[in-house]
Design brief:
The protein has 92 residues and is an alpha+beta fold. It has 2 helices and 5 strands.
């Protein structure tokens, strides 16, 4: 398991204004023997992550918390400032 977190969020960790969380996970298509994605798949995942971050981070509504990578799967957790989801953003 690899954990990478945005340490800049320490000051808001646990703050009630950021009480909602969103986690997006992706199963790797063809993981290597160690369970991690190969270089080509990692590039694709990075593009997806960037698009997710652009979609949700506007106006500091969502704060990117980090990346959790386990054998065969990656997860992008974030924390949300405003209660409820903006459905139009999810549909993009």
């Amino acid at each position: 398991m690899m954990l990478r977190f945005n340490t800049g969020l320490r000051s808001v960790a646990g703050h009630p204004a950021y009480g909602k969380q969103l986690g997006i996970a992706a199963r790797f298509v063809q993981p290597r023997e160690d369970g991690l994605p190969d270089r080509a798949e990692q590039k694709s995942l990075d593009k997806i992550k960037e698009k997710i971050m652009r979609t949700f981070q506007g106006g500091n509504v969502h704060l990117y918390a980090g990346v959790i990578t386990t054998k065969g799967c990656g997860s992008l957790p974030s924390t949300r400032r405003i209660p409820g989801m903006r459905r139009q953003r999810l549909r993009k």
